[in-house]
Amino acid sequence: MRTIPVILDVDTGVDDALALIFAVKHPAIDVRAITCVAGNASLAQVVDNTLRVLDAAGAPSIPVAAGAIRPLLAAARSASHVHGENGLGGLHLPATNRVPEAVSAVELMRRSLMASDERLTLVALSPQTNLALLLRTHPEVADRIERIVFMGGSASVGNATAVAEFNVWHDPEAAAIVLGSGVPIFMYGLDVFNQVSVPQDAASALATGTDALGRVVGALLGNRIALSEDESLVYTGLIGDAGAVCALVDPDGLGIEKRPVRVELSGYGRGQTIVDRRRYSGEDRLHGGIGEWADIDVALDVDATRYAELFLDTLGLAG
Ligand code: BDR
Ligand code: CA
Q1: How do residues 132-172 score in pLDDT, each as one tens digit?
Q2: CB 3.0 to 4.6 Å from 197: which of 171, 226, 237, 287, for a disulfide?
Q3: What's the CA-to-centroid distance between 198 and ligand 1, angstroms?
């Protein structure tokens, strides 16, 4: 089987944990390195969570490195209302003997890209601070990147704000640098992220079952929550970031369009990804400059049942 060599950039994070488990379990995905960035939790917590999740998944030895402790310009902001104080929704995984590499995330990405015979896919499930630093520090690696697949942005509603998705909102300048890099980019945004979920009864059955990995996955899914409009916490069961990893191996489960996209950097729209879905040119194009846009592939629809089944099947947890 032809495998897809990838570097995962994570801010683990309940759904980053689901994505890591899926990635190391899927036979067509070859995880060459994992880099960590502050986002859903502090950098130290993200690194610790990532190493523990790899143990829980029974992963082989994979180099893990710590990256940026905060966004390029913005202040780091907590996501503890969704991911809990420890980033895993309060799930406490056993301590691990795994340790991070003695090099930075940027250096681990650079080395992995330069050492590989084939181009690598960068999968960012997190604020894109590490990727922006890589592309600004070592622009020569751009040729070694097959494409960047990122979970982030939205062509419709936001979650961090009414229009901005968390990963892009957390570090908009980094996302703008990545979009402007010229590397082929695939956006797995909230339009699809918000559709793929595991029903609560299935998650509960896993959490209370006898399979060790199933118990971890069931607990993580049980911690997939959101603030409802009345500010109470509700179960979502979203596989979240794991859907962006599913997209690597099952692109046919998505409706994808190539669209011009830009990141807003100021005002209330800061962190919004504007996706131009017009079929015809508008006055802005006719009457002069329309600013910086990147033509990228955007996932706009997903066969949610197919992706939820792919996720559970790959983990050997289908009912
Ligand atoms: C994204 O932000 C985090 O909460 C999730 O892990 C996901 O990467 C969703 O907006
Ligand atoms: Ca994430």
Answers
A1: 999 999 999 999 999 999 999 999 999 999 999 999 999 99
A2: 237
A3: 17
User: Which of 151, 154, 165, 245 gets mutated to test ligand 1 (max ligand atoms within 8 A of its CB)?
Assistant: 151
How do residues 185-242 score in pLDDT, each as one tens digit? 999 999 999 999 999 999 999 999 999 999 999 999 999 988 888 888 899 999 999 9
- As for ligand 1, residues whose beta carbon falls within 6 Å of it are 13, 15-16, 40, 79, 82, 125, 151, 159, 165-167, 240-241
- Number of the ligand closest to the Cα of 84: 1
Structural domains of the chain in order of their starting residue, each with its CATH number: 4-197+238-314 (3.90.245.10)
Nearest residue (by CA) to ligand 1, atom 9, is 166
Q: How many CA atoms lie within 13 A of 174 on its CB side?
A: 29
Whose Cα sits closest to atom 10 in ligand 1? Answer: 166
ω before 214 within 30° of 0 (cis)? Answer: no
Residue 182: predicted pLDDT? 95
